[in-house]
Predict the 3D structure of the following.
Amino acid sequence: MKNTIHTGLALSAAMLVGTGANAEDATVSILPTQVTAWVENFNPYNVSSVVPTVTDFVYEPMVIFNSFAGGEPSYRTATAYSYSDDLSSVTFTLREGVKWSDGEAFDAEDVAFSFDLVLGNPALDTFGMSKIVSSVEVVDPQTVTFRLAAPSSQAVFEIVRVPIVAQHAWAEVSDPVTFTNPDPIGTGAMTEFTRFTEQEYIQCRNPSYWDNDSLFVDCLRVPQIANNDQALAAAANGELDWMGSFLPDIENTYVSKDPDNHRYWLPGGSLVMFNMNLESDDAGNNAAFNDVNFRRAVSMSFDREAMVEIAGYGYPTINAYPSGLGSAFHAWNNPEVDEKFGEFTQYSPEAARELLAESGYSDIDGDGFVEAPNGEAVSFDIIVPNGWTDWVNTVQIAVEGLTEVGIKANVATPEAAVWTEKLISGDYDFAINAISVGTTPYNHFERGLHQRNQGISRFAPARWDNSEISDLLDDFTQTNDLNEQQEIIAKVQMIAAEEMPYVAVFNNPLWYQFNTKRFTGFFDNENPVGNPVVHANNPMRVLHLLSLRPVE
């Protein structure tokens, strides 16, 4: 790597190997994801294999919206944004004095270039910008306007998720899709990769960071950890400062090892559900997955309580809402949906078997498993990331339930990156998955159900096509009237419950553990500033990093 530690950081690679740096080094050991080996890919548009600390920490967002504070904006490389009166455009004012890590000035040309890059390369458009933004106009060096494909009060929340890269570094890249960006130049707090191996990498502060006065951490140490068992061992030994993993019996396995410093906070989080690929290449599976009665039978075969209490150690919250709404949004609940479709999210193997039989599924060959009404076999793997033990156990419980009602299924455990790619490409039949939730139900309904997202991202892999629900979600973006929004979401729930395009099972907690032995300032239930996780899908981790202080 060409990048080196900037003058003033007294760190050495040898010091950082193993159990982490000394307290005075101000190096935070984090666990943003689990992998079998780190791969040197710093392309922020590559969602499958990019290093997980590239987004946010190398490429800082223009604005970070805090879902824990009603969407309150924290301005980063931008200082303001405003919509036109007709919601057809949104204009950002950029912060003066922001520089790239190589010292070059950051300006509106970089923003426009980045969006032109994404809009011109569908493989890079992982946030569906082509359906949101029609064009980007540089007004002046500190002002950039986004012309929207359709008026939307929600567009700004998606626009700020797109990484902004340096035009002078990317303009001559011949293939931005395969480009690994070996020497990343960013605007964020941590841009300098001073060590990189398959087992560990060190990422240090940006010498040109515009907010360096607020940054009291010099480096991030990111060890390679493959599964939850390894994460637990490292956490229990005090080797990790900031992490987010499933730890079984957390009080005994983690907190008790250092009661003064080992802590956790598990606020409500993402919707966990099972996806069926409605475009499966397998004739039997395709016929079954496109039959709503089959999907309902699958739902009734799932023991959600066992998934939560046994696989999840009681940490998640059961989601038996027919639409997948979730208890965090119960104030939006449409009781007519529960009355009409509630039976299909209750655990009842007997009712599932009856529904399958009524719908023409029968065991033709006598092997104990049903065939589809077209006579084709129904048999599939349920893919779940290797090492995600709570999810693996959840899938095992799902397979047991499916087997009991006569549906043949198996557990398959690809690496997380492979699992992600399969969901996006459609190279799967059945999968466990999750969608992050926002301040209203719009976020997860839109990501998972809107036509524009189908087959584009990991969050909408079912390839479900419903224009009515897409139109309703679009209507939601055209009003700020709460009563109108509630009426729209009530209709969305009814359609989602009737069609059941995915099978919701529970809402994950936000997995978050921290160690106060070397650093203070962590978000917790007494300091609930925002989403505390260190994972790559949480821009609030920038503000969390800036709140940390070394223990003196």
